[in-house]
Amino acid sequence: MEIGRQGGAPGRFNFPRTILVAPNNDLIVIDRTGRIQRLATDGTCLAVWNVPDAANGTPTGAAFDRNGDLLVADTHYSRILRYSGDGTTLTQFGRYGEGPGEMILPQDVAVDGNDNIYVASCGGRDKIIKFRNDGTFITEWGESGEGPGQFHRPMALAVRDGSEIVVADSCNHRIQIFDLDGRFVQMFGGVGREKGKLTYPYDVVTGPIGEIYVCEYGNNRVTKFTREGRATTLGGPGNGPGQFRGPWGLALDGEGHLYVADTYNHRIQQFADQR
Q1: What are phi and psi of 212, to 5 degrees?
Q2: CA 117, chain centre distance (Å)
Q3: Does position 273 have pLDDT exceeding 90, yes or no?
Q4: Which of 5, 43, 140, 163, CA to CA, is 20 to 30 A from 96?
Q5: Which pTM does this prediction carry?
Q6: What are the tens digits of pLDDT across the range 129-188?
Q7: Sign of the four-CA dihedral 144, 145, 149, 154
Q8: What is the CATH topology of the domain spanning 65-271?
C-alpha cells in the first residue's frame, strides 16, 4: 500500500525521511521541510506541526519514550526536542560541542526499556551518547574511524531484545551492535550490492525475535537479517510499487507491517507481515 504523494497539504510529503510507529499504532512522519505529521495507518492526517527552526536544516530521526512522548533529533540545531503525542512542545536538551554529553549533528535517538535515551551524533567526533530520560548525561562511546567501535556518520539506532544497541554506521556501510554500556558485541555488512552487503544504511529497526531490518539508501532496498545472519532483500530502484528512490526511514508495527519512507518518491510504502 502507498501512503501520500508530493505536496504540502496534510497527508502529503516533501522528502519524508523519518517514520516511526506510535504506541497506539499511528504513524509519525517527518519530512525535509521540518513538518511532523501524525497519521492513521490509512494515511489520514490526524495532526501536523513544525519544528521551531528549519533554516539550518531539519530532523532526521525520532523515537517514543515509555511515557508516549516523542523525542526528535533536531539534527542541525544540536538538540533533542520533546513533544507530547499531539505535538505540544514539552522540553528540549542538548548542547553543541565535542565534549562529554555534547553533540554536533544528532542523527537519531532510541530509548531502552529503562527509559534511557541514546543519541547518534556525527560531526567532529562520531559517537553514541547515553542520557537519562530527563537529559542528564550518563556515558558515551565511539570515535571517528573504521575499526570496531568507531563510526563514520552513525545515522540510526535501534534497541534489540532490551539489551543491545544496534547502530547503522552509514558511511562505513555496516551495522554495529553494542551492549547498553557501549561494549562492542559484533558488526556485519560491508559495502556492496550482493545479499548481506550494505550501501549507505540510513535506518535500522529490530523485530520481536531479534531480526534486524536495514534501510539502504544507496541500494534502494531493505535488507532483513535473521539473528543467525541470513539476509533477504526487499525492493530495488524505481518509482513503481515496491520500488524505492533514496529510501531514508523504516518502521515496524506490532503486526509485522513494514513501513518505508520512500524519500525521493515522496511517499510511504507499507508492506505485509515481514516477520
Answers
A1: -125, 125
A2: 14
A3: no
A4: 163
A5: 0.96
A6: 999 999 999 999 999 999 999 999 999 999 999 999 999 999 999 999 999 999 999 999
A7: positive
A8: Neuraminidase (2.120.10)
